[in-house]
Amino acid sequence: MPELACRNVIVGAGAMGAAAARALASRGEPVVLVEQFAIGHDRGSSHGAARIIRHSYADPVYAGLMPAAFRAWRELEAAAGVSLFVRTGGVSFSTPDVDYVGRVASCLAGLEVPHRRMTGAEWNRTNPAFGVRADSDVVFEPDAGMLAASRAVALQVDLARSIGGETVTVLERTPIRSIDLDGDRPVVVAENLRLRADRLIVTAGAWTERLFPMLGVPLAVTRQRVCYFRPADPTPYRIGRLPVFIAMGAGPLEAFYGMPDLGGAVVKAARHGGLATNPDDDDRAVTEDDATIVREFLRGCLPVLADAPLAFTETCLYTSTPDERFVVDFLPGRPDVIVASPCSGHGFKFSCLIGRILADMAIDGSCSLRPAGWGLAGEES
Ligand SMILES: Cc1cc2nc3c(=O)[nH]c(=O)nc-3n(C[C@H](O)[C@H](O)[C@H](O)COP(=O)(O)OP(=O)(O)OC[C@H]3O[C@@H](n4cnc5c(N)ncnc54)[C@H](O)[C@@H]3O)c2cc1C
Fold it and tell me: Which of 18, 25, 117, 290 has the greatest count of CB atoms below 10 A from its CB?
C-alpha cells in the first residue's frame, strides 16, 4: 500500500477540521484534510442552516472565550468577504428553582456584554410571541445571533484550498480505518493509502472513539432530532422579531433551544440531548413522539408555535463528555498527535477559534487561548 509523507494531516472535515485546515494554510503550512464522506455531508454534527452564537454562558470559562470567538468569526467574514453571522438577540430563561440565568447574567456582567435581566412576565410583554412562566428568570443578550453552519464549513475548506493552493489536499470519501502509532510518526490508514504525518490532528466528531478507543474520556454519541415548524403567520418569528432562545430545565433532558430561520418562513426548535446512537446508522427519523416532546416545550414558551405544522425535520449528532466540557489535547506522550472533540452540543460557535488553537498547538506546541480544562485528564495544573 502506498505511504505518503505529509507535514500536517487532519482527519475529519466538519466545523473543527475545516477551521483547522484554514488556520494551518493561513500560517503557510501544507495540509492533507481527509473526510470519510463528501465535504458538506449531513451525517455528522456541523450541517444545517444555522447555529446559535452567544456570550450567554453560565460557565465563565466558555463565556470568557466568547469575545475571541466572535472576533474569529468576524475575521473569517472579512477574509472571505461574506457574512456568516446574523444578529438576532438571544434570550435565556429558566424557572426560579434552576440555578442558571443568574450565573449567565453574572458572566455577561463580568464581560461587560450588554444584557437585560427580567422576569418572565416582563419578557412576555417585551416579546408577545412568548408565553413563558411569569415567574421565570430571564436574561436577554442583544448581541447574540446565528451562524450559517453548513456555509461556514464549506467556506473554510474553500479558503484553505485557495490560500494553500497545491499545498492543500482534500481527500473526500476516504474513511480512515485506523491510526498506527507504533512508529516515530503517526500513520493514518485508509483502504488503499497510508499517510505518514509529521503532525496529526483528529477532529472526527462522533467517530473519535472509533479511532482512539483508549482515550480515557467517555464520549457519548447521541442523535438529535430537530424540528422546523411553519407558523401560519411567520411575521412574529422572523429575524429581528424572534431572538434565538434557550430554556434550561432542572434535568439532563430538560433543556430546549430554537431560532428563527435565515429564510424567514420556519422556526427551528429542539431538545438539547437525545438517546445514544451508533454514528454509522443513517437514521434520519424524527417521529411524532419526538415532535410532541418539542411541542410540549413550545406550549410553555411560544404557545402559538406549539400547534404549527412541521415543515421538515433533521437529525444531527452530539459527541458529549459527561460535564459537556471540550477535549482539545495532545495524546499522552505524542506531541505530534492532537485529538479535538469540542462538541457536547455547543461547539460550533467556538469552531473558528478552535481552528486557530489547533494550528497553534500543532505548529508551536501550545496555544495560550486553550483553557486548561480541555485536557484529556480534565483540569491541568
Ligand atoms: C442539532 C445540533 C444543534 C447544535 N446547535 C449548536 C448551536 O446552536 N451552537 C453551537 O455552538 N453548537 C451547536 N451544536 C454543536 C456543533 O454543531 C458541534 O459541536 C460541531 O459541529 C462539532 O464539529 P466537529 O467538527 O467536531 O464534528 P463533525 O462536524 O461531525 O466533524 C467530524 C468529521 O469527521 C469525519 N470523520 C469521522 N471519522 C472519520 C474517519 N475515520 N475518516 C475520515 N473522516 C472521518 C466525519 O465524517 C465528520 O465530517 C449543535 C449540534 C447539533 C447536532
Answer: 18
Q: Structurally, what CATH architecture does the domain formed by 3-46+150-214+323-374 represent? A: 3-Layer(bba) Sandwich (3.50)
- Cβ atoms 367, 27 nearer than 8 A: no
Q: Which atom of ligand 1 is nearest to the CA of 52?
A: 8
Confidence of residue 252 (pLDDT cuts 50, 70, 90): confident
* φ/ψ of residue 124, rounded to 5: -60, -35
CA 288, CA 310: separation in Å to the nearest integer? Answer: 10
As a three-state string, the secondary structure of 288-346 is HHHHHHHHHHHHCCCHHHHCCCEEEEEEEEEEECCCCCCEEEEECCEEEEEEEECCCCC
CATH no. of 86-146+220-320: 3.30.9.10
Query: Which tens digit of pLDDT belongs to each residue from 182-218?
Result: 999 999 999 999 999 999 999 999 999 999 998 999 9
